[in-house]
Amino acid sequence: MTRFSSSRLRVSKNLNGFTLLEMMVVICILAILLLMALPSAQDSTVRKQINDALPLAEIAQKPVNNAWQSANTLLSDNAAAGLPVPEKIVNQYVKAITIENGAIHLTFGYRASGAIKDKTLSLRPAIVEDAKIVPITWVCGNAKAPDPMTIKGQNKTDIPTRFLPLACR
Q1: Engineering a disulfide at 108: which of 97, 101, 114, 116 sits with its beta carbon 3.0 to 4.6 angstroms away?
Q2: What is the three-class DSSP state of 138?
Q3: Rounded Cα gap, residues 100 and 81, in angstroms
Q4: Taking the model in full, what pTM does it have?
Q5: In the beta sheet, which residues pair with residue 100?
Q6: Tell me: the pLDDT tens digits for 85-110?
Q7: 120/135 Cα distance (integer angstroms)
Q8: Three-state SS for 107?
Q9: Rounded Cα distance, 107 and 104, in Å
Q10: Residue 142, SS3?
């Protein structure tokens, strides 16, 4: 029979590593940090989609600008601007662009985030009433017009403010 010495069977009490409790605390802290970062990442994704959609509005801005410069009037709808029906002016995030009394309304859909799907962003013309030569300044969303200018058209922006780019707040 072989005899084992008692020193060989002794279990070391000096373990180098983490306890289960320490690991759980670290995992909880990481989860809390991740949950705090997630909303700001979503907000910036939605703002990027809105910024990517804005250049499409230039299609409608040009005829509105031209009508103001030539006749000092704002166009009433897409037909007056010589544009197709709203549902035919689209991109990956916008499902319709509507002109209404000079204002341009972008309706989001298709690949847009669920936070802005079926929501509208308005671009409204700001003009100087008694100066025909002054070009139109486009006011995005809930933003204010420069002092001597007057905003025309209705603001139909229903996108939550936290998602709007700074120029549209």
Answers
A1: 116
A2: strand
A3: 10
A4: 0.80
A5: 103
A6: 999 999 999 999 999 999 999 999 98
A7: 25
A8: strand
A9: 10
A10: coil
